[in-house]
């Protein structure tokens, strides 16, 4: 039977210690950082629309893998996923400001920035196949929304002499939960990694792309609003 060292893998790095067979069941922990991209548009409670957007998030999962053939595994991940995106609209409105005395008036443009933070409990069944040291994963996921917040910041454009009453050129105007988000989210994902040994450890870089299959908000306050993610992860695995 073909054997490898025990893998302690972490998305981007999988590190292993003892002898482990491709035909053995195994489990472990996975940690990752994500680049999140918002698609479509949504409307906040104040009435402003936001389009697109991007940000960074992170996730952590426990996983289990069971051999089907010497090189093919069925697996299951479950854990926590946090997504953060930011979208900015400039030139949304104009304001007249009195400068110094009541005879000098300036016109300034106001922009708006919307920041969305969501956290999920996720469950992801998947299959995994090895070709030499290269391995690939494909699976689907169901995520339960645990919490969400939306914050809106008003931003002054141009005219450096103008500030808000807080002494800054930006001010928070709205903070709270989004309007009627979907509590369940569905997605598909594909991953690829390469396993190798270094200084007595087995390392396995892993990159994952998660594609949304459902909308974050499914009502008149959004148009095809979804979030995709590209993860770089590190997983630590072990065999009993």
Overall pLDDT level: 80
- What is the end-to-end distance? 16 Å
Write down how many β-strands occur, each being a DSSP E stretch of 2 or more residues.
16
Strand pairing plus helix content: what structural class? mainly beta
- Walk across the major sheet and give the strand order: 5-7-8-9-10-12-15-16
Shape type: elongated
Low-confidence stretches: 1-21
Strand content: over 45%
Quick one: biggest sheet?
Answer: 8 strands, antiparallel, barrel
The sequence of SSEs as H and E is EEEEEEEEEEEEEEEE
User: What is the helix tally?
Assistant: 0
DSSP helix fraction: under 10%
Gyration radius, in Å: 23 Å
Write structural notes for this entry.
There is one protein chain. By secondary structure, the protein is an all-beta fold. The protein has strands spanning 3-5, 8-10, 13-15, 19-21, 26-43, 49-51, 54-69, 72-98, 105-131, 134-157, 170-176, 184-194, 196-198, 201-203, 206-212, 222-238. Helices cover 0% and strands 73% of the residues. It has an 8-stranded antiparallel barrel with strand order 5-7-8-9-10-12-15-16. Strand 7 (54-69) and strand 8 form a beta hairpin.
């Amino acid at each position: 039977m073909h054997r490898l060292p025990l893998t302690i893998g972490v998305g981007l790095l999988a590190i292993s210690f003892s002898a482990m067979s491709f035909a053995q069941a195994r489990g472990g922990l996975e940690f990752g950082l994500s680049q999140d991209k918002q698609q479509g548009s949504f409307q906040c409670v104040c009435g402003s629309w936001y389009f697109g957007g991007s940000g960074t998030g992170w996730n952590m999962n426990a996983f289990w893998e069971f051999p089907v053939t010497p090189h093919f595994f069925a697996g299951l991940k479950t854990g926590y996923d946090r997504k953060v995106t930011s979208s900015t609209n400039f030139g949304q409105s104009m304001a007249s400001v009195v400068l110094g005395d009541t005879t000098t008036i300036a016109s300034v443009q106001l922009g708006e920035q919307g920041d969305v933070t969501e956290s999920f409990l996720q469950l992801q069944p998947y299959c995994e196949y090895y070709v030499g040291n290269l391995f690939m994963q494909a699976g689907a996921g169901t995520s339960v929304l645990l919490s969400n917040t939306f914050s809106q910041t008003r931003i002054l454009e141009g005219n450096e002499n103008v500030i808000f009453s807080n002494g800054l050129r930006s001010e928070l105007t709205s903070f709270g939960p989004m309007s009627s988000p979907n509590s369940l989210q569905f997605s598909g994902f594909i991953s690829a990694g390469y396993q190798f040994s270094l200084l007595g450890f087995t390392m396995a870089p892993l990159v994952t792309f998660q594609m949304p299959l459902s909308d974050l908000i499914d009502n008149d306050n959004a148009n095809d609003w979804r979030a995709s993610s590209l993860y770089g992860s590190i997983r630590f695995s072990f065999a009993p």
